[in-house]
Design goal:
single chain, about 525 residues, Cu_amine_oxidase-like_N
Length: about 525
């Protein structure tokens, strides 16, 4: 028996050495990739696979078909993809890629197999603007490229391209994400459409007759395919948010919320230029969702607002709060990626309802506007945003307070855009976070509070009391001043100058987590006292 056991062990070891191994990758035979209705030829080593539940596709086959230039370095095991002035690099085995030297995270590291680089399907979607869909039954990846946006060359009098219709066109001013809400701000009204899609899970919001404003695009870094992103970190449900100009006939902005799991949600249109996608909890896994005819949903059909579509439906509300259904939806059909459900005007819905107070928190400056530059060369915008994100984390624990951020990443909403968000949502309180600075030879130290209207004085007094006590800097008082965001808002509004970036003592404290956390806690305590929320 001992000899037999030794022989079996030896045989197993030989087989492990001789036979190739794919680790935790599952090879799928006879897979397919369909690009705009045409099937692509896949090499034997370039089949679609799944790795730890992530669909992996051959990089070169797809991106070259999309018109990008691809090169491979055997020495560094790195693929380089170029389009116009944008360069993207990713390395086999690394969970981090770079776009023009800016790091981005990958859901699964690229896999090098028999000379073919496999990348996550989501990577293709996020970085090329291509809509993707995985049909697990047919073992087919469907890719749909966006409609081309044609810009006639200057002086070209022979161009017969139909010009884009700009009649009643709105401009997208800002996109932010906070408290499980995607908030889109426009300078006009919109008639948005939406879809919820699976494999991967995402919510698609289209804004017809909408283009990006110049102020929104100024300073933005766009990926391959002219896709921009809103940074989302630490959220358990949202993997990322991306946006692009999807069409110019009519001009249509598409915003996609990539999800870690399928979610119930509400789409809210207040008809004043604010559109909100509000998440409302996870739905059951796709394997447990059934179609209206009782058949299993294999992940290829939309999870929509129709209550007959699934056992745990996505919810879209009417103005009276009742579920909105789509009588034209057919749960047995495979959807396109073009949102088909119109969002009703819902002025009575959104944050700050059901007895909750609504607070708008503004991180000063951002994007192209760095704000003041500190004594050691740091930017004010890199102080204000971390503080606001810490305030967000605290407000998320308050069941009686809803909140919206004017910006949740390094972007620049204009001052009127920040005011518009607060006014259009009928917020109860507006708080703007800043760092002070002076060009004087000797910089003062301390905390100051600003307000414009008499109705804001009580809020300023209460929050100032908490902030000064928490930070321990000199109390430089409360001042009335005509500042745009505190003057033009219609609710009590204050602007906090937490300390002086031009003062070496203040500045050394202001960029520490401890100082920022103390400031955030003081602001929230002051807001709660003012609102009478326990």
């Amino acid at each position: 028996m001992k000899k037999t056991g030794l022989w079996m062990l030896t045989l197993i070891m030989i087989l492990m050495i001789v036979l190739p191994s794919t680790g935790h990758a599952a090879i799928t035979e006879s897979t397919h990739i369909n690009l705009d209705g045409q099937e692509l030829a896949l090499p034997a080593s370039g089949q679609v696979e799944t790795v730890n539940g992530t669909v992996m596709v051959p990089l070169r086959v797809i991106v070259e078909q999309l018109g990008y230039k691809v090169s491979w370095s055997n020495r560094t095991q790195t693929a380089t993809i170029k389009q116009n002035k944008t360069t993207l690099q990713l390395a086999a085995g690394s969970h981090t890629a770079t776009v023009d030297d800016k790091a981005i995270d990958l859901p699964e590291a690229p896999l090098l197999q028999n000379g073919t680089t496999l990348v996550p399907l989501r990577f293709i979607s996020e970085n090329t603007g291509t809509t993707v869909k995985w049909d697990n039954t047919a073992k087919t990846v469907y890719l749909t490229t966006p409609k081309k946006v044609v810009t006639p060359a200057k002086g070209n009098t022979t161009d017969t391209t139909t010009p884009a219709d700009t009649t009643d066109q709105s401009a997208l001013q800002a996109i932010s994400f906070s408290d499980s809400r995607l908030t889109v701000t426009l300078n006009g009204t919109a008639s948005p459409k939406y879809s919820a899609l699976t494999n991967p899970n995402r919510i698609v919001l289209d804004l017809p007759k909408t283009a990006f404003s110049e102020s929104f695009l100024d300073g933005k870094v766009m990926n391959l395919g002219n896709v921009g992103k809103v940074d989302v970190t630490g959220d358990p449900d949202v993997a990322g948010i991306r946006y692009s100009l999807f069409s110019n006939q009519p001009s249509t902005v598409r915003v996609v919320m990539d999800l870690n799991n399928a979610q119930k949600y509400k789409v809210i249109n207040n008809n004043k230029g604010v559109v909100i996608v509000e998440l409302d909890g996870a739905v059951k896994p796709a394997s447990t969702i059934t179609n209206g005819n009782g058949t299993a949903n294999n992940g290829n059909t939309q999870v929509s607002g129709n209550p007959n579509t699934s056992t745990d439906p996505v919810v879209v509300t009417n103005p009276d709060g009742s579920p909105s259904t789509d009588p034209n939806s057919d749960p047995t059909t495979t959807p396109t990626d073009t949102p088909s459900k119109a969002v009703p005007v819902t002025p009575g819905s959104g944050p700050g309802k059901d007895g909750k107070k609504l607070v708008v928190i503004d991180a000063g400056h951002g994007g192209k506007d760095s704000g003041a530059i500190s004594i050691t060369g740091k930017y004010e915008k890199d102080f204000t945003l971390p503080v606001v994100l810490k305030i967000q984390a605290l407000l998320e624990q308050e069941p009686n307070i809803d909140f919206v951020l004017t910006r949740s990443d390094d972007s620049y909403p204009t001052l009127p855009d920040r005011v518009k968000v607060a006014n259009d949502l009928n917020a109860d309180v507006f708080v703007s976070i800043h760092g002070n600075s002076t060009t004087s030879a000797v910089s003062p130290s301390g905390t100051e509070m600003y307000y414009s209207r008499a109705s804001s004085l009580t809020l300023a007094q209460i929050v100032h009391k908490h902030v000064v006590a928490a930070l321990g800097l000199s109390d430089r008082g409360i001042h009335q001043k005509s500042l745009h965001v505190t003057r033009e808002t219609t609710m009590p509004a204050i602007l906090i100058e937490a300390g002086y970036l031009s003062n070496p003592t203040d500045e050394a404290l202001m960029y520490t987590d401890a100082f920022q956390e103390q400031l955030a806690e003081a602001v929230v305590a002051g807001i709660k006292e003012y609102l009478g929320v326990s």
